[in-house]
Design goal:
With 422 residues, the protein is α+β, with helices and mostly antiparallel strands. The protein has nine helices and 17 strands. It has a seven-stranded antiparallel β-sheet with strand order 11-17-16-15-14-13-12. The protein is globular and about 70 Å long. The termini are far apart.
């Protein structure tokens, strides 16, 4: 496969040096990092072809033959449940000419290439192909759809294009994901609403926006941001990502309690409970006392990203009277919140492409974004974590000093940041 045409030189290293600095001395990335087609292809090679990517929920594939054909940065992927109940993932390319053997989603007993009718079973094995018997050296038994690594955690399906990748468990544990999120019991929830939207921005802007506390009280002031502890928000930075526990109304109009607290959290959290964690490279998971809402982003091209937002509720809620009406309230609200960001993300993409754009400084509220940008640069530049650890320590010391200086100006704690919903 030809190279991407992108390589790191001293000029690029000089440009990103400002982002590699400590938080309160750092600046955001240069605009071309969000617009360059050559860099985008390099990101696909170094990140998306190497890391575990969330591609759905197990309950979306309840029966043998249930499948979904998707593309991630142009790479065709086929996910299906096999005849014995296992989940399979394949590169969705026919072994003859490369045509995608399935499109969309649904249930099939076999996959038939629409070009020349080569047929594959649910385990990816070639069952038959017209006119191949006349070939002198064709191995039918060895002609299978290329497999892709697949695993699951918490009911989420993850794939990895790299055959030599570390296990999903080890990957998640590097940031303590399983330990932090276990109490939410996502495996005991079901998808009650799914919102898919193509956002006209670079993929990096999506997770950046979701960890941007700076904008919550501005763009989302009328939805949920008016009751959000922006000044006192605390990120717990991990090796690559972060987690946080904080206070916020649930994702419903005025924080109304529609179903009550999830059974396994009753007596353990209050109605203002909220938490979040980031699963690199593009999954942001949010929890409230009554629901779980992960956002998953897949790049389409350097200026377009497909975002899928799941709303998950305890399985037993689906049988409650009035479920459909209440669930629609959740669905409508998360679409409202997501839509509030769309215009701004499009403007953000356009702005960084301007000849007049100069990266601005990162402020304390952008601590997680600064952490994300440096994880990204570590991957892009193939650097080790030594300098990264030192930056974390410097950031912590700088923030502690800033807290000491400005602590008296804060609003005094979470209890002052919330008012009862009317």
């Amino acid at each position: 496969m030809p190279g991407t045409g992108f390589h790191v030189d001293k000029n690029i290293l000089a440009e990103v040096a400002q982002t590699r600095a400590g938080l309160l001395e750092s600046k955001h990335l240069p605009g071309w990092f969000y617009t360059s087609p050559e860099l985008f292809q390099h990101e696909i090679d170094t990140i998306f072809m190497k890391e575990w990517l969330c591609v759905g929920r197990l309950e979306e594939f309840p029966n043998p033959g249930d499948y979904a054909a998707i593309r991630i940065a142009g790479e065709p992927l086929l996910i299906c449940r096999g005849n014995s109940g296992e989940m399979n993932a394949f590169r969705n390319v026919c072994r003859h000419r490369g045509v995608e053997v399935a499109t969309g989603e649904g249930n099939l007993a076999k996959f038939t290439c629409p070009y020349h009718a080569w047929v594959y079973d649910l385990e990816g094995k070639l069952m038959g192909a017209p006119h191949v018997k006349e070939l002198k050296a064709f191995d039918v038994a060895g002609c299978n759809l290329p497999r892709v690594q697949i695993d699951n955690w918490g009911g989420y399906i993850f794939i990895n294009f790299d055959a030599d990748c570390q296990s999903l468990g080890d990957y998640l544990d590097e940031d303590g994901i399983r330990d932090f999120a276990a109490f939410l019991q996502p495996e005991n929830t079901r998808v009650s609403h799914k919102f898919v939207v193509d956002v006209p921005c670079n993929w990096k802007f999506v997770p950046e926006n979701l960890m941007d506390m700076y904008h919550v009280g501005v763009i989302h002031k009328e939805s949920f941001g008016g009751h959000f502890p922006v000044a006192n928000f605390r990120f717990n930075l991990k090796k690559h990502g972060y987690n946080a526990t904080y206070e916020s109304y649930t994702m419903a109009p005025k924080g109304v309690n529609l179903f009550g607290t999830m059974p396994w959290l009753r007596g353990k959290v209050e109605e203002l409970f909220a938490c979040t964690t980031w699963i690199r490279p593009t999954m942001n998971m949010f929890g409230r006392h009554d629901l779980i809402q992960p956002w998953v982003a897949h790049p389409i091209d350097e200026k377009t990203t497909r975002v899928t937002i799941y709303t998950q509720l305890p399985a037993e809620y689906f049988e409650l009277p009035g479920f459909a009406e209440k669930n629609k309230i959740y669905g409508d609200f998360i679409q409202l919140v997501a839509t509030e960001d769309l215009t701004m993300l499009e403007s953000l993409q356009n702005g960084v492409g301007s000849r007049g754009f100069v990266p601005g400084p990162t402020v304390k509220l952008e601590r997680a974004i600064h952490h994300l940008l440096n994880y990204y640069l570590d991957r892009l530049l193939q650097e080790d974590g030594g300098a990264r650890t030192r930056r974390h320590e410097d950031n912590r010391d700088a923030l502690e000093q800033a807290e000491a200086v400005h602590g008296a100006a804060r609003d005094g704690g979470y209890s002052r940041s919330f008012q009862a919903a009317e």
